[in-house]
Amino acid sequence: MEREFSRYGGVRFGPPDLRALESEGYAAVDMHVHTTHSDGLIQVGDALARGRRMGTSFAVTDHNTVGGAVEAVRRAEPGQIVVPGIEVSAAEGPHLLLYFYSVDDLVDYHREVVVPALQASPYLATTLPTDEVLAGIDGRDALAVAAHPFGYLFLCRGVCKAIAAGELAPEVLCRLDGLEGVCGGMTRTQNNRAIAFAADHDLFLTGGTDAHLLSELGMVVTAARAGSVEEFLDAVRRGDALLWGQEKTMIEKTVQATAVLPRYAPYLGSSLGVHYRQNAPRALRYLTGDRKRQP
Fold first, then answer.
1. Class level of CATH domain 2-246+262-287
2. pTM for this structure?
3. Which of these, 52, 56, 5, lies nearest to 33 by C-alpha position?
């Protein structure tokens, strides 16, 4: 297994063989999963059951909320790893995946840092700038990872894309621990750019499906030899983890987007306002020729 992955620098593309990983002592964790507590359509109980059947664990990383993570940790069976997490949407646009060793620390961070910054559209941007999202974990036992660093399309949902667009200073990279190197919602080109960027900047890699539908769970995993959340996150922090997975097809992305869209319908007006505030200045710079080079 190690020789097989070493040719890919710890990354392998394709459907992950979860049982093979399990047989060699790896805990395989899909580190980017959304539940019905935010904009996903995945019930926590269904995710736990599917994970047991498939041989995969996961991190609940709902947008700006922690109810799904708390429920999953409390309902998990002994030995079933569930990483407490959250995906915070920064004011400039980037999404930050934060992983906590303790669900209590996650709840405290959410209450003290995120809740005061929530807007009318709960799954979109908070009022927190990226550096404040990251500064909020100072003194807490947690890891900060840039989600889909080169995504999405014309939106600056990734840190690297936001830096290239002039929305963020490059110094923000100093506050990050890692990058999401394989994200199921990205293209192979975008994921390869993230992998190369992490290597150049000495950042560890994680992988996750960005699952919103139950059928997507476990399509991308981060695997490490670990028997607990603490051991797993320690291995990820050291860079002793393997990434294995594949991106969604265009059809799968379209199905997901269509299924999730009604979750945003009650917040249409405020959502449009968020998109305007984030993207109008960048569009104006583009039209006037003030463009930035990609990192």
1. alpha beta
2. 0.92
3. 56
